Amino acid sequence: MADYKEIAVSGREYQRHRRLVIDNPVGNGIVFNFVEEKVTELTGLPVEVTPVSNLTFPYVSTETFIIYNSSTGEPYASSALNALVDNGQIRFKMSFLKEVILSLYKAKVTQRDGT
Q1: Phi, psi at residue 5, to the nearest 5°?
Q2: Which range marks the domain in which residue 45 is found?
Q3: pTM to 2 decimals?
Q4: In this structure, are residues 9 and 42 in contact, taking their beta carbons and an 8 Å threshold?
Q5: Which terminal residue of the chain has fewer beta carbons within 10 Å of its beta carbon, N or C?
Q6: Do 57 and 72 have their domain in common?
């Protein structure tokens, strides 16, 4: 027997960063803070967004991470960094900044969660 007003549901739930705060106080080191949220999308219902946590870490100039294409999930090859050359200066499209931020988040959340 089904529970009162029980319905089958389908959809998805995932965690993402909503906001990146870069704090650069005088006399202290730079700190990054990714504000995270959980998104629940169930068929036929409004999207539900719930604050989850903050992922905070200091800037480390020697740290490296892989840059991923946010559309495909594949790492960029060094020859495909979406750069333009303008009078001998290398310029990146603003869309590349998005790729860098999403990749930094992916690297740090993977490090934190051990996945």
Answers
A1: 60, 30
A2: 1-61
A3: 0.74
A4: yes
A5: N
A6: no
Give the SS3 label for residue 62.
coil
Quickly state the pLDDT bin for 81 (edges 50, 70, 90).
low
Half-sphere exposure of 41 (CA within 13 A, CB side): 5
Question: Are both 39 and 73 inside the same structural domain?
Answer: no
7 and 55 housed in the same domain: yes
Tokens of 94: 């603003």
Torsion of CA 56, 37, 16, 99, to 10 degrees: -60
Rounded CA gap, 94 and 54, in Å? 25
Could you report the per-residue pLDDT of 90-112, keeping only the tens digit for each? 777 777 888 889 999 999 999 99
In the predicted structure, residue 2 carries a pLDDT above the cut 80: no
| 25, two tokens | 């106080």
pLDDT at 7: 67
- Residue 13, beta-bridge partner list: 40
